[in-house]
Amino acid sequence: MTSTTTNAYTLRHHRPGDMGWIVHRHGALYAQEYGWSERFEALVAGVTVDFIENYDPARERCWIADDRDGQFLGCVMLVNDRNSDDNAAKLRLLLVEPSARGLGLGRALIHQCTEFAREAGYARIRLWTNSVLVSARRLYEKEGYRLVSTEEDEKLGFKSTGEFWELVL
Predict the structure, then answer these.
(1) CB of 94 within 8 A of CB of 136?
(2) DSSP assignment letter at 39
(3) Hey, what domains does the chain have and what are their CATH numbers?
(4) Rounded distance, CA 55 to CA 57, Å?
(5) Which contacts (CB < 8 Å, 24+ apart) does range 117-123 have?
(6) Residues near 108 by beta carbon (within 8 Å), at least 6 away in sequence
(7) Which residues contact 153 (CB under 8 A, 6 or more apart)?
(8) How far is the C-alpha of 101 from the C-alpha of 28, rounded, in Å?
(9) Contacts with 97 (C-beta within 8 Å, 6 or more apart), sequence order
């Protein structure tokens, strides 16, 4: 599937320039909404570099949501969990712009990952999120993900609760 179109947005695969936009929007939006520092932006940059350097189109995808005018509305990635030996994928970098919230875009992006993972033959999808991302956590739960574990850490430059979720396919 190359793209999916609704009245409000189009989902498409990534193209050159998108990774820079993903890093920029994650850094700016999460700083504005949650006060997160550039340490989070660096984490996102690392994920995008890893994606570009190791991209396997048969097993991995990045979806970008644009509006009718081509403006960025959101994104998500599904990547091979190269550190696991149980045929797992990772859902990474879900973001929905404030102007696109309430359109069902977050749910659609997560569901794209689920369907692609099934088609690619993965056994499960894992993700890491933060406890303050309540709306995203609700969407994961509705898709069938279950909270597996939590950890207190300072990865983002402050004390926070990281959460590990999993969906068995």
Answers:
(1) yes
(2) H
(3) 3-126 (3.40.630.30)
(4) 6
(5) 117/78, 117/89, 117/169, 118/169, 120/58, 120/59, 120/89, 121/87, 122/59, 122/87, 122/88, 122/89, 122/169, 123/86, 123/87, 123/88, 123/168, 123/169
(6) 4, 6, 11, 65
(7) 159, 160, 162
(8) 17
(9) 25, 29, 72, 73, 74
pTM exceeding 0.85: yes
Of 61, 21, 71, 69, the closest CA to residue 45 belongs to: 21
**94 is written with which tokens?**
């879900």
Over the stretch 50-104, which tens digit does the pLDDT of each residue have? Answer: 999 999 999 999 999 999 999 999 999 999 999 999 999 999 999 999 999 999 9
Cβ-Cβ contacts under 8 Å for 159 (sequence gap 6 or more): 152, 153
